[in-house]
Amino acid sequence: MHNCTFFYTFAMVASTSPALEPIPLLPPPDAGTHFPGVPVVDLSHPGAGESIVAACQDFGFFKLTGHGIPLHLMQRLESATLEFFHSPQAEKEKANTADPFGYGNKRIGPNGDVGWLEYLLFPVAGDDPFSRAPMATSSFRSALAEYLRRVKELAREVLELMAEGLNCKERKIFSNLVMGEQSEGIIRLNHYPEFPQPEKQLDRSLTGFGEHTDPQVISVLRSNDSAGLQIALKDGSWVSVPPDHQSFFIIVGDSLQVLTNGRLRSVRHRVMANGVKCRVSMIYFLGVAPGEKIAPLGEVMEEGEQSKYREFTWNQYKKAACRTRLGDDRLGQFEK
């Protein structure tokens, strides 16, 4: 893989324990307020495809219910993840066996971005994504493998319903791009810990993960019941997403925005860390193969519609992303 993998997947290089001082502060959130307009799609209802498309057009984001994945399976991976993050720092750093994958904290990419979090990052390839991390227990491996198997099938269903909602003739036009043997999938396990002195109240939250868009086609996110996730609306305002540990959240990535010629938009999002209660999130990023060409698909374009983007490969996107900061507009350089 390209040596900037850690940046375009928004991983972090392992460093010392998180420190408060260099991490940006965010404006204090309005107490107890969450955005009530987050779109919800029930996967078990007829017309889910149309609802998915509408949500991705308006928000680039939606909550997914009726997915059929049992809560105990999600909680099993959450518990295993927390067990790892609560282990001694020296033990955690043993997982950093192969840069860019493994364990890291605080630093996000090579260009100065930081956040109040630690993480585990692994490629989803083969049957054992923990093959590069001998520290992983058998129960951790088992929990992750089962979780990934179920979420991958969930992502396939979402993408195929999306194609139906866009009236594509080929139902697998999106899913085939991210389900191939060479397709690049990545799993992130994020931990936003409590502050070292929780009794010391801050009048602002710390940046947990700074604002950005995801590079891939879609991301499937699940978290515990701790708040912190925010998305940007079309007018640029930020709203807080109510946590729901029983549901998944689907995030449109830059690749899907290009594939649909901007019809579905990637959403800027960030995480605020309040330091009072830890947040744990599990994000499965589904990307295309390194040499795959990314350009607007004819099936989603209307007759006579002009492409808004010039064609590029996934590798070309990644190389360009290595030169940017987390919050930069990476698609701008590919617009016509």
UniProtKB/TrEMBL annotation:
- Give GO MF terms, alphabetically: gibberellin 2-beta-dioxygenase activity; metal ion binding
Whether Iron counts among this entry's keywords is yes
Pfam families membership = 2OG-FeII_Oxy, DIOX_N
Coiled-coil residues: none
EC no. given is 1.14.11.13
In terms of InterPro entries, this protein maps to: DIOX_N (IPR026992), IPNS-like_FE2OG_OXY (IPR044861), IPNS-like_sf (IPR027443), Iron_ascorbate_oxido_reductase (IPR050231), Oxoglu/Fe-dep_dioxygenase_dom (IPR005123)
> Where would I find the Fe2OG dioxygenase domain in this sequence?
182-288
Q: What catalytic activity is recorded?
A: gibberellin A1 + 2-oxoglutarate + O2 = gibberellin A8 + succinate + CO2
Is rRNA processing there in the keyword field?
no
**What is the similarity comment for this entry?**
Belongs to the iron/ascorbate-dependent oxidoreductase family. GA2OX subfamily.
The record's annotation in PANTHER family points to: 2-OXOGLUTARATE (2OG) AND FE(II)-DEPENDENT OXYGENASE SUPERFAMILY PROTEIN-RELATED
Q: What is this protein called?
A: gibberellin 2beta-dioxygenase
